[in-house]
Design goal:
elongated, 8-stranded antiparallel sheet, about 5% helix
C-alpha cells in the first residue's frame, strides 16, 4: 500500500497521509543573441525591427507554474523529489527564434505634404497615419507525459515516459501528427521515465496588427483622433498542441492539433478628443 511506502510511516504509522512543502529552490538560465534595426522618422516613415535567438532552461518556474494550455507545464511539484534536476529542460516560455517589426507611416496626402491638399479634400484625405506590428516566432516547448501513474506514487506532478527516439515528425500543417508516439514507451512499474521536460516544440506563431488613424484639429490645442484598429488583421489561425495532446495514455489525440493559440480578427473603432 502507498501509505506503508511513505518515508514517515516507519516513524509513526499514524502519519498515513501525504506531506507536501514549498521550498525557495529552482534553477533558471537564459542565453540569447539580440539584434535590432531602427529607422528614425525619415520621409514620414519610422520602424523598429528586432530579432532574438535564445534558449530558456529551468527546472521549475514557481509554485503556481505555467497553465495547461499550449506550453510545457512546469512548476507545482517535481516529478522526482529526490532529483529535482530531472525536470531541468527548456522552459514553458522557451522560444528559439523571435522576430518583430513595428512601423509607422504618415501618408503623403494633405496640407503641406507631398501631395498638397486643401479644403474638403484635406479634411477627408489628409493627416492619415498607418501603423503596424508584426510578430513571428518558433513554437513553444512541449513535455510528453504519461497519465497512467506508472511510478505508483500518486505524484502531484506530471510523470514522463521513456524516450526511445526524438519524437519529432517534422509536421507543418494543422492536420498533421506533430509527435510520434512510437518514440515513447511507458516506464516500468515503480519507476520514472527518462524522457525530459520541454523536449519538443509545437507549431510556430505569427500575427499582424494594423491601424489607421487621423487627427482632426480644432485650433492649436484641441483635436479629435479617429482610429481604425484590426488585431490579427489577416484572421490567421495559429494552431497549438495542448498538454492534453502530449499524453501517451491518449493515443487517439497524441500529437494532434486540438485548438488554436490566438483570437480571430478583432476590429475596433476609436474616437478620442484631446484638449
Amino acid at each position: 500500500p502507498l501509505e506503508q511506502r511513505r518515508p514517515l510511516y516507519q516513524l509513526n504509522p499514524d502519519l498515513d497521509t501525504q506531506t507536501s512543502g514549498t521550498n525557495t529552490i529552482g534553477v533558471g538560465k537564459y542565453d540569447a543573441l539580440q539584434a535590432s534595426v531602427r529607422q528614425r522618422p525619415t520621409e514620414s516613415l519610422e520602424f523598429l525591427a528586432s530579432y532574438t535567438w535564445g534558449k530558456a532552461l529551468s527546472d521549475n518556474v514557481g509554485y503556481y507554474g505555467v497553465g495547461w494550455g499550449q506550453t510545457a507545464v512546469q512548476g507545482f511539484y517535481y516529478m522526482d523529489n529526490t532529483d529535482p534536476l530531472r525536470d531541468y529542460g527548456p522552459s514553458p516560455y522557451d522560444v528559439r527564434h523571435m522576430f518583430s517589426l513595428a512601423a509607422n507611416y504618415e501618408l503623403p496626402f494633405g496640407k503641406g505634404k507631398k501631395y498638397d491638399l486643401s479644403g474638403p479634400a484635406d479634411v477627408a484625405l489628409g493627416g492619415w497615419q498607418l501603423n503596424t506590428i508584426f510578430q513571428a516566432r518558433t513554437g513553444l516547448a512541449l513535455t510528453v507525459w504519461d497519465g497512467a501513474g506508472q511510478s505508483l506514487q500518486a505524484t502531484r506532478s506530471l510523470e514522463r515516459p521513456d524516450r526511445l527516439c526524438t519524437g519529432d515528425t517534422g509536421a507543418s500543417g494543422p492536420d498533421d501528427v506533430w509527435l510520434d508516439i512510437n518514440c515513447f514507451a511507458r516506464a516500468a512499474a515503480g519507476t520514472f521515465g527518462n524522457s525530459g521536460a520541454g523536449i519538443l516544440h509545437g507549431p510556430g506563431y505569427w500575427n499582424m496588427d494594423l491601424g489607421l488613424s487621423k487627427d482632426i484639429h480644432f485650433g492649436d490645442r484641441r483635436y479629435a483622433t479617429f482610429k481604425i484598429e484590426a488585431f490579427n488583421v489577416f484572421n490567421h489561425p495559429n494552431f497549438a498542441i495542448s498538454q492534453d495532446a502530449a499524453n501517451i495514455a491518449d493515443p487517439n489525440n497524441f500529437g494532434r492539433i486540438l485548438n488554436t493559440f490566438s483570437a480571430p480578427r478583432i476590429v475596433e473603432l476609436v474616437l478620442k478628443f484631446t484638449y
